[in-house]
C-alpha cells in the first residue's frame, strides 16, 4: 500500500494552514497515512484544545474508508460504524472536515481539519491537498 511521505504531508499541512490564515481562524490539522496513522499535525495558536483530536479523528475516518469524512456522517449510527468508533476509542470521527488523498488513483492518506465550520474544515483540507502535485481528494 503506498503512503504519503513526510514531505508531502508537510506540504498538505502548509496549504491547509495558509487557507486557515486567509479565513482568520485558528484551526488544527492532521495528516495521516493510508492506514490512518498520524504523519504530522499542527495546532494553530488560539485554537481550541479539542481541535487536534477532532482533526485527527476525521482524518482517520476518511483514510479508513477512502471517502470524505462528511460522507460517513449518515452511517455513523449503523452497527458497523458504531463498532469501528468503539474499537478506535474516540479516534474515529465521521463528521465533515477531512478528505482522502489519492495519488495516481491510489489512497495514500487523508487530511482533516477542525476549528471552523464543518465546510471550512473541509475547504482548508482541500486547499492542503492542492499543494501536492498529482494529489487529489478523489480517485
From TrEMBL:
Pfam families: HbpS-like (PF03928). SUPFAM superfamilies: GlcG-like. This is Uncharacterized 15.0 kDa protein in dhaT-dhaS intergenic region. The lineage of its organism: Eukaryota, Metazoa, Porifera, Demospongiae, Heteroscleromorpha. It comes from Geodia barretti (Barrett's horny sponge). InterPro entries: GlcG_carb_metab_protein, PduO/GlcC-like, PduO/GlcC-like_sf. It comes from the Eukaryota. PANTHER family: SLR1406 PROTEIN. Residues 113-139 are annotated as: Disordered.
